[in-house]
Each structure stands twice: as structure tokens, then as C-alpha cells.
Amino acid sequence: MLTGSSIGTFIPRIDPLALLSNMQIPEWGIDWLKHEQVALMAALFAHRTGLYTLG
What we know:
Layout: H1 2-21, H2 27-34, H3 36-49
């Protein structure tokens, strides 16, 4: 069970990395990815503080 759980979490984390490392990402894609961290942190902060709830 531990091995299956390890594989189940390892594959979704490594597959995008392996896929994107061999691709040429256009400049607009790089600019878009720069905003991903800010959007994720803002969403986590809003959910944690109760500013936004799902449902």
C-alpha cells in the first residue's frame, strides 16, 4: 500500500516536469507562468482567512 501511494503521488509530480523540460515554451507562456505563484498564494490566503469559501 505504501508503494502504491508513493507511485501515485510521484507520477503526477514528475510527468509535467519531464514533459515541459523538453519543450520550448513561448515568451507569452513564460510570462503567464510567472503569475501562477502569486495567484496560488492569493487563493490559499483567501481560503485560509475565510475571505472566500467554496459552496
